[in-house]
Amino acid sequence: MEAGKDSKNLDSEEAGAAPDNAESKESEKPASKSGSEEAKDDVGDDEAEAGSSHKNLVDSLGHYLKDKLHIGDKAEKKKKVLPEKSLEAVVKYIEEKKITKIITMAGAGISTSAGIPDFRSPKTGLYNNLAKYDLPHPQAIFELDFFHKNPKPFFVLAKELFPGSFKPTVSHYFIRMLYDKDLLLRHYTQNIDTLERVSGVPGDKIVEAHGTFFTSHCLECELGYELDWMKEKIFADEIPKCISCGGVVKPDIVFFGENLPSRFFRCVEKDFDECELLIVMGTSLVVQPFASLVDRVGSKVPRLLINREKAGTANPVMRALGLAGGMDFSSDTNRDVAWLGDCDDGCEALAAAFGWADELKELVAKEHELIEKEEQESKTKVKGKI
C-alpha cells in the first residue's frame, strides 16, 4: 500500500534527523562548560531534534496528501485504465484485451420498463405505494417478524409482482446476449422477479443476492415447493400452507432479518477475483453487502455504470486518503464510466457500440412473441377446462 510506503519514509526521515557531521561538531565543543550549561545544551539539542522531527512529519504528510489529492505539479500521474470515459472505450477494451469474464450487477432499474416498480423512487416506488396494506411502516412487508404475525399483506403484494406476469426487458436480453457470446462470467441481481431466468440466462450463471420466487420453503419443517405450486396458492388468494406440517410457506426471497443465500458468498469469493470487467445497471448501490461488491474486483478492472444517476461513489476526501472505496467517476484513470439514463437505452447504446443493435432488437422481438404465444396457449387451456 502507498500508505505503508509513506510510513516507512516517515520513519527513515525521523531516524536521520541528526546531521551527518554531528560527531565532528561534538568534538569541537569547549571542554570547560559546566554541568548546568551542558544540561542546557542537551535540552536545546532535544528541542531542535524534536522540532526537526515534527517538521519532517508535517512535510511528509503534506507530500502524501498532495499525491493522494493530485495537488501540485509533482503529483504522480496514474496510468489510465481506459483512454476515455465512454461506452466505445469500454467496448474497445473488451475487444483488444479479449475479455471473456464480465460480471453484471443489477437492481430494480432493469425491470421498471417491464412494469415492475422499484422500491425507492419518489411517488412511484414500491415503498410509497403500500398505504393500502395498513403496515406499521413500508419496510414491514419484508420483515420476518411482521410476516410471522401477519403474512397476508405480503401475499397480496406478491400477487401483483409475481413472476410470469411480466416480460423481460431490453436490459435482461442484453445480459442474455453476453451469455450467448460467452462473455458472461456471472450475473448478480438484487431483483426477485426471476426475469433473468425468463430471458434465457441459465440458473447457474445467476446469483440472486436477495433470493427468488423461483423456489419456496415451509418456515416450520423447511419442505421445499416449486414456483407453480406457489403461484396457484397466491392467485387463489390463499396463504400458502405446508402440506406436511401446516406451516406457512414463504418464497425464498430474503427478508430483513434473514441471511443472504449461502451461494451468494460462495460465488463472490471466486468470481470477483476472476472478473475482467464489471457492468452495474439500475441500482442505487446503497444496500449492503451487495453495494460493496464493486470493490471486490481488481484495482485495474474497468467498471461501467448504467443508471439514471451516479451511484456507488464515496466521499472524495475519504477515498483520497484510502479510507473508503466505491466508484470514482472523476478519476483521471478513466477506470469508472457512467452512462446516465434508462437502463434499456443504455444497453441499446452499448449493444450499438458492439455492433449488436439489430441482433438485440430481433432477440427481444422473438422472445416476447414466444412469451405471448405461451400465455395465449395457457389461457386457451384454462378456458377448455371450464
Write a structural description.
With 386 residues, this protein is α/β, with parallel strands linked by helices. The protein contains 13 helices and nine strands. Strands 3-2-1-7-8-9 form a six-stranded parallel beta sheet, sandwiched between helices. Strands 5-4-6 form a three-stranded antiparallel beta sheet. It is globular, with a radius of gyration of 30 Å. Residues 1-53 and 71-76 have low confidence and may be disordered.
Secondary structure blueprint with pairings:
Layout: H1 2-15, H2 22-27, H3 35-69, H4 87-97, E1 102-106, H5 144-149, H6 152-161, H7 170-180, E2 184-189, H8 195-199, E3 206-208, E4 211-218, E5 224-226, H9 227-235, E6 249-253, H10 262-274, E7 277-281, E8 303-307, H11 316-320, E9 336-340, H12 343-354, H13 357-385
Parallel strand pairs: 1-2, 1-7, 2-3, 7-8, 8-9
Antiparallel strand pairs: 4-5, 4-6
Helix pairs in contact: 1-3, 7-13
